[in-house]
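=== RUN LOG ===
request id: a7f3
mode: sequence -> structure
chains: 1
length: 181
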Amino acid sequence: MIENVEKVREDYFKWLYWFACKYRANKYVSYDKLLRLMHDIKFDFYMERDSSRAMDGIGLRRRFVNEKRLPLQALDAIDGPCSVLEMILALAIRIEYIMDNPRLGDRTQQWFWIMMSSLGLSMVTDDVFDEDGVTKIISDFMNRNYERNGRGGLFYIRNTTLDMTREEIWSQMCAYLNTIE
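=== RESULT ===
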């Protein structure tokens, strides 16, 4: 059993935060409240194939333990269902793997914030944080209560004939990536 469960949990959150904000946040801008709330909310899905997105999110825990050279028992401290934050970060990592371009460098954070922008959360800093508003946005996303073109979900595509609310997240991502020139 790991001795300091709370320290492992906090270190894990800081590691996730770094993934999302290493170039975005600074001493004047923080997304701590937003990302903590997203990490506290369980990623619920209604399309069975979206379970793969949850599994990818949970997979980040093992990566964290390996990178930090923690004992495998540290995974017990961060056990539980996938959070919304974990799912979106894991998806950003997958996108970067697919769209890898050494000339452009690692764009994981860029993909993460593209999804946050589509959700309508990219400007939610600690200074303007509204817990109820953020919770509603995340709930609407998970319940597929967003526009057919994906606005309010993870991927917004202008002028699409595809109903994004009826597509699994992976298919939405592929459709979005196909629009990038």
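=== NOTES ===
The chain has a mean pLDDT of 93.
The chain has one domain: 5-131.
=== END ===
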